[in-house]
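Researcher: Please predict.
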Amino acid sequence: MLRVAKLILPLLIAAPVWTAPAYASVASEDSVLLQPTMEQRFTTNLATKLLTNWHYKDTRLDDELSSRILDSYIEMLDPNRSYFLASDIRQFESLRTELDNALQHNELQPAFDVYNVYLERVHERANYALSQLDEPFEFTTDESYQYDRSEADWLETAGDLDEHWRKRVKNDYLRLKLANKEHDEIIDLLRTRYENLDRRVTELKSDDIFNFFMNAFALAIEPHTAYLSPRGSDNFEISMKLSLEGIGALLGRESEYTSIARVVPGGPADQDGRLKAGDRVVSVGQGAEGKMVDVVGWRVDDVVDLIRGPKDTVVRLEVLPEDVGVEGPSKVIDIVRNEVKLEEQAASSRIIDVPQEDGEMMKVGVIDLPVFYLDFNGRARNLPDYRSSTRDVARIIDELKAEGVEGLIMDLRNNGGGSLLEATTLTGLFIDEGPVVQVRNGSGRVSTEEDTDPGMAWDGPLAVLVNRYSASASEIFAAAIQDYQRGVIIGEPTFGKGTVQSLLDLDEYGLSDQPRMGQLKITQAQFFRVNGGSTQNRGVVPDIRFPSAGDPEDYGESALPNALPWTEIDPAPYQPLEDLDQLVAVADFQFRGRVKDDQEFGWLMEDIEEFNASSEDRSVSLLEATRREEMDAKKAKREARKNGTGPLVEELDPLALVDDVEEDIDEATEEEEESEEDERPDLMLRESARIVADMVRLGADGQLLATQFSQVKRENQGEAVN
């Protein structure tokens, strides 16, 4: 949730002289040391006062915060620990308790000193990588490359870094060789990559360094707090507009790669279906024939500039799918840029027929809601036909009732949130009246958002399907349904974002009419469930959990640095509508028994085990024979699944996301694979429909529910004894 706020804050621009601790900056003869400007000092003064006085979190500019700022800044510059030496890190320790003093005096030189060391180290690494291209490559030595060093120790010597980069270059070469690139082409591609690495850090300006440091400052407070430079502010405003022309994806940084953080519902990438969250972008090409530009090591906003473009034009992305690791193979996805329109993000529905024991079919309705949307202008003007998620869902419920559905699923997977008002009113379609969510501001005052409209649009069996990308407003809705025991939550634990951000325009306090200082996105409130617990950090834990890859602690809010902890307040006055404990226990038991011998779920569990094992090992073999064996095994498994009796698992089958290594796949093969993807069932949705059908059956027969609950208790007790 984000809102725009204006504050009046007295400014003290004058700063006494501050003397930095003894500190040596590194520079080669050819490098130009970057320096802060007076305008940046002015912005620092204002931003510091806003961050320490108006943030929801009690924030003091002291040694503890200074330490976090230093760690955050180093992490931002060198997240994979591939440039700085351990001696550099020891040298930076002199700043650990000094950055707070520097900020109090609007002094930015220490941040620039650290960056200038980083600049020199990048020069050294790029030059070393380029030198390796003149050496012969062999892939018969049994050694491995540690591609993820984010949690490793800093390397002590330049020789240690040389060895790491020797293996990195070797892996870069091998990955391209496995993609059937010729030697000369590989060398040209890698030379361009490493030259670009050096060039791009050299081209950074003073404003870029200031942006890095101010965001390190903001991130040291809380992960959803950020400084937006004038350029960053423009990009943020574009991302908030439904008329954005592009592919409809949010980008982030993962090691040396730009990664897909989220696919925007209703956008071109979402409609295409091939690009997934977690995919890493290797190169970008314009049009059907444009040269692919290698973007490994590029800044995220520069990659955004390449991907963004006019409507109806084509952009090609070479990506490493999340589940294949850095060893590849990669795949090329062509997407036609378009506008992300409200209609494409609107609620939609389908009906799933679930077979019953008597041979009949039970109709279960599904409402897919990609985002909590609201036409604010139409609502303010009281237009009779303004669009909102609540209005559309209410209409769809009436249509599903007319079709004779007996149960309903609200599908909120990948729903990243939206309007708080809509989260409240949509909840009101499923409860009679009452509080939906509590909001506490920085002063401790708690307000309550309530459903005041009596009656329910749907009072039958209800399930809410969520995953790790369900966040914010999605979590408010799911939490309210769970607290009222109005329905059953199914899926994965949600993201855990339970905070509210305000957007502060720094130029409102400036002396110029020209935008020059940027904006602050600052957290100023927190959501709480009606039971008093927070959605923050923990998210919403499903009543019936589906298997998922990875540790829940490694994704979502809990994995973000300096995230606000889970906490609780007094519950709101609400009354659960019923007791679903027995129903949940029996439905969960039946679900687990049903999928135990299910072929598709067997594949799913197999893939999850492999993914988890590979994610723990953050290295890849540099033996060509081993890598080819691994590729052949994946292809063989995929072919075996193609020839099996059951359909392929959608989305969660990493092999289903991997194209053949060969770059030139004939059109017939491509069309065949796309057809297969279109026919793959949504495994999670299918099982959710079966669970809802069980809920309908059990809810209609109290005696049956009681009998089966007793059986479940006996089974569970037996397992506990064993």
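Model: The mean pLDDT is 83.
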